[in-house]
Amino acid sequence: MLNFKETTVPEGLDEHYEASSDGTSFTLKVEGLPEAPEDKTEEVATLTLKLSEETDKVNDFRSNNIKLKAQIEKDSTSDSKIESLIQDALQPFRDKNTQLETTNATLSRNLEEVVLSDKIKSLAVEAGVYDSALSDVVVRAKQSFSVKDGKVVPVDANARDTEGNLFTTESWLKNLTETAQHLFKPSQGSSAFRSKDVRTTQKQSSVSRISAGLKKK
Questions:
Q1: Structural domain total, the chain
Q2: Which of 58, 125, 154, 171 has its CA 20 to 30 A from that of 183?
Q3: Are 181 and 168 in contact (CB under 8 A)?
Q4: For residues 103-130, b (16+ Cβ closer than 10 Å) or e, as one string?
Q5: Which residue range(s) make up the domain with 149?
Q6: 55 and 142 share a domain?
């Protein structure tokens, strides 16, 4: 969660701020931004800067609205006129707040995209996926995984792999070596994801050959 401290809370936005223990400052709560992977620091910083800029614009609107409201209360004599002027003055602020929430949601989605892509690509490279096929693997992974609290988790929390274990990115990629072998380099197979299966196959083949020879005798 990203925090931005203020000494006052914009009118109508109390639910978006959290007061400090001594009540002298308030923190803007921006939910849903997971921590970025270490090698994505620059991209996360850019996203955070954009969010900070939007917050500064909201603060400017807040200051202008406070001044306008004070002027209206001083010069106006009609309660209905005052209410109308106040609502008109606050509308740009409400619109800006909606825009900030939309921007926050967009930044969250972008960051989740970075976390998921980085995780899957890292495993795919280790498994021997062609560089040109990494994007394809990421697209496939998005159908089965999402990001929650900064971690890549299965879309279906109760999903199990073919061995009955909880579904993970590793077990998903291992299954991919069997269903989409064209994505992997022939000379490397899929590293640790397939080496065990290969050894087992070779062992079984040897036993089969010996058994076949004994039967001939």
A1: 2
A2: 154
A3: no
A4: bbeebbeebbebbbbbbbbebbeebbbe
A5: 32-216
A6: yes
